[in-house]
Write a structure and sequence with these properties.
By secondary structure, the protein is α/β, with parallel strands linked by helices. Helices cover 41% and strands 16% of the residues.
């Protein structure tokens, strides 16, 4: 696996009901800064997005936010830490975040986080990249996601090896070992559909 210099973190614009989500975002940010790994994220100053950006910046790390122009107009862009890239759409935001990152990590979040996580895993299934993807399953947050992925396999819509497209861990401390151990995507997850 190539050296990871930057991680794109997908996460919520809210902190969620469980305080463990906020603590995990802080811990991941601190660990990234300690390792000299830059943060690429959705550019917000609110929710888990703002928390992880502050944690990385507070630890002396680099932060790159990517935010669409319409959200900047709602005053949620984080211009206080690092670089802020403004895009013309949500689609170009996701593409730019992908381009700037060597790996992806998903914390808990809402529909936007789910969209980003599903899309980046789908791109990997379609052999558009081989970057490692890790989901931090704080308090079982990603259990329903894993169940849905399992349902696609049982229902005959996906190959069992789609489970290898991402790794699920229980906390921020397990992220870096999971990134290092992430398997290459098996071409069968694509060819089984053709």
């Amino acid at each position: 696996m190539k050296t990871i210099r930057s991680i794109c973190v997908f996460c919520g614009s809210k902190t969620g009901a469980d305080p463990a989500h906020e603590e995990t975002a802080k811990r991941l940010g601190a660990l990234m800064a300690e390792r000299g790994i830059g943060l690429v994220y959705g550019g917000g100053c609110i929710g888990l997005m703002g928390i992880i950006a502050d944690a990385v910046a507070g630890g002396g790390g680099t932060v790159t936010g990517v935010i669409p122009e319409f959200l900047m107009k709602l005053d949620v862009g984080n211009s206080e830490v690092g670089e802020l890239i403004v895009t013309d759409s949500m689609h170009s935001r996701k593409q730019r975040m992908f381009e700037l990152s060597d790996a992806m990590v998903a914390l808990p979040g809402g529909l936007g986080t789910l969209d980003e996580t599903f899309e980046i895993i789908t791109w990997k299934q379609l052999q558009q990249h081989t970057k490692p993807i890790v989901l931090i399953n704080v308090s079982g947050y990603w259990d329903p996601f894993a169940a849905l992925v399992g349902a696609t396999i049982v229902g005959g819509f996906a190959h069992p090896k789609i489970r290898d497209l991402y790794t699920m861990v229980g906390d921020a401390d397990a992220v870096f070992a999971a990134l290092a151990a992430a398997p290459e995507p098996d071409v069968e997850v694509l060819t089984s559909h053709l």
